[in-house]
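Continuing the batch. This is chain 6 of the set; chains 1 through 5 are on the previous pages. Same settings as before, nothing changed between runs. Recording input and output for traceability.
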Amino acid sequence: MMSHHPRPRRSRAHRCAALSAALFSCAALTLSAGDAAAQAPDFSTRMTARKLADEALKLFDQKDYAAALDKFDIANQLTPAPTLAVRSARCLVQLGRLVEASERYLDVVRMKVPANAPFQHKKAQVEALDEREQLLPKIPSLLLNLDGPLGKGVEVSLDGKPFPAALLGQKQPLDPGKHEIAAVRKDYTLRRSIDLREGQQETLTLKFPPLPVVARSLEPPPPERSTYRTLGWVGVGAGGGLLLLGAANGVAALIQRGALLDDCPEQRCLPEQHGAADLYDVTRVITSAGLIGGAVLGAAGVTLLVLDLDHPASPAPPAPDAARDAARHPPLRLGVSVDWGGATVRGIF
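Output for chain 6:
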């Protein structure tokens, strides 16, 4: 018969050593897999990151969340890991930066973790997903609208930063607390302050007043041209023209008269001189009419210019009133008749 001897039991220390060796082997395998995918940080970098993480944990327990966030972020930059990123997201939640914390949680969930990654990494991703779902209902939102005439455009800012026009009329997630909104039109500025609580859904409409009426800078209308002045200058010009015409014809008449005196002694002309005599008579009449008419028109023009001094020009009205203009200036009628015996001027001034 074969005798069976019971196996000796291993001591607790031996079992702990075996377990530690097994965990070390798993860690070594994980590190080897990570090195195959990407080059792992050197030992010094990993030691620094581990030290920063330990300090960050202590600061978090002491509720110094801002300092803890800085150290977690630096450690995560040195050795990216879901465990570090999820802890930085928790710091953001404690600081009230809920929108950024939500995005940080989402980054953790989307991190590509190898299948043989440590259990803590996978657990951190699950925790990030759960904590984000609990956080989302707490994030307040603001729906901003503009009303009224906007002119050539309005620039909107939120907490001093430009607010995209595409977000107008859309719910914008914001952190809890006080926020400053400004909308600037070229001629008008609207400012509002709003204090959001966790989970609050707020709608804010900024209403602009009517656009200002822009006064057109028009040059003053030219003064109304006086009728007396206009007719006065016309009379002076026409009179001067007639005087020049009369003078020219007078010279021609004198020349013709000298020739006729030589050809027609005792003012008796032969038949062949009758044409020259008739031309002289016509020239003489034109001379008399030109001189008399020019003198009369010139005198009338000067008279009207003198009368215009008593009627200063006034600004032209938007719509001229013919009746009022006629009442202001008496009618002017001027007539000139010329016959063989001389010239006659008739008129009402």
